[in-house]
Design goal:
This protein is α+β, with helices and mostly antiparallel strands and about 800 residues long. About 20% of the residues lie in helices and about 35% in strands. It starts with a strand and ends in a 6-residue tail after the last strand.
């Protein structure tokens, strides 16, 4: 088997125009025309709207590639397109290979009869996605008028990432091009198809069953052989048996529960006695499912790995860019490392985007990040006809085959919010009953059947949120998973989270503004006002900037400038997610998952993300590092009664020592209690509770509660601090901190203050420094060292609450 990528010597133009521009593969119209300066950067100012209109054009791509005599001599030659975006006609040397209408699919064409030895010409004609959806004619009576907030109507008529047509956090930039590789494959007689690797776990051993498909055009004699290589590189098996016994297996665990050893399975195809092709798969030995046992509250929803029910902690992942060719392995590794930094064990791949590349799943395997994998359907109604059904069947098959063997795959979910939309959303009212019937056909029959066929050991869930399907109360808090938006969209207070005990919350969120450095990338100085046209254009959720100010007014004093507003918006966001996650973790067993919306951005924007488009961590991301940690303390406030809890999601008991101190703002200790408790593995426990009403009456604005706690982790002491105030922060009479700051060459910072500092956040000015700790509370006079992990040296900006209004 000879494989080679075809990537260079390509050009693109607006269809029918005279000017061609050089393009590489992966590449796209937006990527090329932006680089060439034909249109300005869509992310700056309000340029996005020029690009939206530009995508009413069709495009032409042409390129040449060489076929060597050795390649041409092979009996079979295939040309595979791993990502055509989206509606395209493909020609090779003037002969039409085929037509595509699905960016999520892999298209393979036999091309031997069309090829030349030497130079070959490839041409791709791309139809405007906007004009395609506008020209779609549904059957009379089955028209679809629903469109999600911020989206262009009609996006459901094309199998293209829905968010390319806009969302309430993203622009309308429906690009066109080749966003993944093109590959030429040349072989004799036969080739390897797909391999399914199934696992049977027994005490002290695991048996692999390797089921491989052989694709051949003739009666050629073929055989398979296998190798198994251990995590340390040792050859554990070599032979022709496809049932492989592994003694003393090293199990794969999610981040925080154990290590991530990966085994390698090699499948060799032999044709007429000679080795013809080899494929390699990396696997982790684990069992994973979702437990739905009945219990005292209803029915649990818990991801179960190797028999252990884990509390899922993480966020919802969206595409990293509107320029899909720019979503490289480097960006994906940045993402997965950011998830590990925040002590996540899970990401939910949201259904309104795209199926990530193979590298993403490899990285999640390596770092121990479980994936809740949506199929790519979200907040829409679909017109099922014979062509659409065949299209989505093949789409599901293409993608499930790609990721089914990965250790990180926890479950596959049919869609985002579509079952609950049919039950509760006004936007769905007035559609034909046959479209509602088609929902059940699509997500509870067609797609689960494909998943069952291609990934028989993977748990399938019909929708998110859902209690199990068939429109049976999809928002039921006592079954299945829930999305909760009364805080934010409903403008209810953060305390509202404490009234809910979801079995698994897979969406909840709160917005913030991105770093001032990010704002500067898309604005001129005159635009840097929250209600300027440019700032509002980089805020796609209607009235959201006003919501930020509303919530700010409930908690903080009015900020003096934009930088202060940005900082406070990020603290509000972090605090909201902290309140919710800590509450649900305190109720471990009843609730078993907290996945906040959202992890990342696809352009520079005000949104729900904890990491902005440039990979800059907002305050939430740093705060999540603490409240998502395996061992995490939290203060439960009920009026003036304070309780201190430890959530222990580690696999071992921990001995916790905590000092609970009532202090003045100048650190005078008014009352202090020390507790020591052993907290069991995979549990949550209250260590202390006290009513402080009598102690703080009349001085609520001048005191705070600090809890400093410590425990041993891998033989080293871990020391952390939590705090709470007795009145909203806007009423606390904060004082000038009088910071003492020492900056070290490696970027680390030592900082102390003379008075209570509830939220202190550092930001690198020249560099995007990442510190092991940030967004800290200074609750005593001792200096804190914030160790730099990335971005050495350079000036540092220090934010704190007091200086947002002084």
């Amino acid at each position: 088997m000879i494989r080679k990528e075809i990537r260079d010597s390509f050009e693109i133009r607006v269809a029918g125009s005279g000017d061609w521009y050089p393009m590489s593969v992966p590449g796209s119209a937006m990527d090329t025309f932006c680089r060439e300066g034909i249109l300005p950067d869509p992310y700056f100012g309000m340029n996005e709207y020029k690009w939206t209109e530009f995508f009413r054009n069709d495009f032409e791509i042409r390129g040449t590639f060489e076929v060597t005599p050795e390649e041409y001599a092979k009996e079979q030659i295939l040309l595979t397109f791993y990502g055509v975006d989206t509606v395209a006609d493909i020609f090779l040397n003037g002969q039409k290979l085929g037509h595509t209408e699905n960016m999520h699919r892999i298209y393979t064409f036999p091309v031997k009869e069309y090829l030349n030895e030497g130079e070959n010409r490839l041409e791709i004609y791309l139809t405007s996605p906007i004009r395609f959806i506008e020209s779609y004619q549904p059957e009379k009576g089955r028209e679809i008028h629903m469109a999600n907030t911020g989206t262009m109507p009609g996006g459901q008529y094309i199998r293209k990432a829905h968010s390319m047509f806009g969302w309430d956090w993203g622009p309308i930039l429906p690009d066109a091009g080749i966003f993944r590789k093109i590959e030429l494959s040349c072989y004799q007689k036969a080739r390897l198809g797909e391999t399914l690797i199934r696992q049977r776990h027994q005490p002290g051993s695991v048996t692999l069953s390797v089921e491989t498909e052989i694709l051949k055009e003739s009666d050629a004699e073929t055989a398979l052989s296998y190798e198994l290589i251990g995590p340390d590189g040792t050859l554990l098996y070599e032979g022709e048996e496809n049932e492989i016994l592994i003694a003393e297996p090293k199990l794969w665990w999610p981040h925080g529960y154990g290590s991530q050893p990966l085994y390698t399975v090699r499948v060799h195809l032999h044709t007429e006695g000679e080795q013809a092709e080899t494929k390699e798969y990396r696997i982790g030995l684990r069992t994973v499912t979702v437990s739905r046992e009945d219990d005292e509250w209803g029915q649990e929803f818990a991801i179960q790995v190797n028999g252990v029910k884990i509390f899922a902690r993480g966020a919802d992942y969206i595409p990293d860019d509107c320029f899909y060719p720019r979503i490289t392995r480097e960006i994906l590794e940045r993402d997965v490392k950011a998830a590990v930094f925040a002590n996540f064990n899970c990401l939910r791949v949201w259904g309104g985007g795209y199926y990530p590349s193979d590298e993403f799943y490899d990285l999640c395997d390596e770092y121990g990040i479980l994936l809740w994998q949506d199929l790519m359907y979200a907040c829409n109604i679909y017109d099922l006809n014979a062509d659409f059904i065949e299209n989505i069947r093949q789409e599901a098959r293409d993608n499930v085959l790609r990721f089914r063997n990965h250790a990180c795959l926890a479950l596959i979910c049919g869609n985002n919010e579509m079952e609950t939309a049919w039950v509760d959303w006004k936007a769905v009212e007035g559609h034909a009953p046959s479209l509602k019937r088609d929902y059940l056909l699509q997500f509870e029959y067609i797609l689960p059947a494909v998943v069952k066929e291609t990934a028989p050991d993977t748990f399938y869930w019909p929708s998110s949120p859902s209690s199990g399907g068939s429109f049976d109360e999809p928002g039921d808090e006592n079954r299945g998973d829930c999305h909760y938006w009364d805080v934010w969209h409903g403008q209810k207070p953060f305390s509202e989270y404490l009234k809910h005990y979801f079995r698994f919350c897979s969406e909840f969120g709160f917005q913030s503004l991105p770093s001032i450095k990010t704002v500067e990338t898309f604005t001129e100085e005159k635009d840097r006002n929250l209600f300027s046209k440019v700032m509002e254009s980089h805020q796609k959720n209607p009235a959201a900037n006003g919501k930020i100010l509303y919530y700010l007014s409930e908690t903080f004093r009015y900020p003096k400038d934009l930088e202060s507003l940005i900082f406070l918006s990020q603290i509000l966001q972090g605090y909201a997610m902290k309140v919710a996650t800590e509450h649900w973790r305190r109720n471990r067993g009843r609730c078993m998952g907290s996945i906040y919306w959202q992890f990342n951005d696809n352009w520079p924007v005000a949104s729900w993300s904890s990491m902005d488009y440039y990979g800059r961590y907002k305050a939430l991301h740093y705060m999540a590092r603490n409240f998502c940690d395996s061992v995490a303390g939290s203060i439960e406030k009920q009026e003036q009664t304070m309780g201190f809890w430890i959530s222990n999601e580690s696999m071992a008991d921990v001995e916790v020592r905590a000092m609970i101190s009532l202090k003045t703002l100048d650190f005078e200790v008014l009352e202090e209690t020390e507790v020591m408790e052993k907290v069991g593995a995979l549990s949550a426990q209250c260590l202390f509770r006290k009513d402080y009403q009598a102690l703080v009456s009349g001085r609520e604005e001048e005191v705070f509660l600090a809890v400093t706690y410590s425990y041993l982790q891998n033989g080293e002491e871990v020391r952390k601090t939590e705090f709470e105030t007795f009145v909203p922060m806007k009423y606390v009479e904060l004082r000038e901190p009088e910071f003492a700051v020492t900056r070290w060459e490696d970027g680390s910072v030592e900082i102390s203050a003379q008075t209570f500092v509830p939220y202190c956040m550092l930001e690198g000015i020249e560099r995007d420094t990442v510190w092991a700790d940030n967004v800290i509370a200074l609750t005593d006079g001792r200096p804190r060292v914030l160790k730099a992990l990335r971005g050495e040296g350079g000036a540092v900006r220090i934010y704190d609450v007091y200086h947002t209004y002084h």
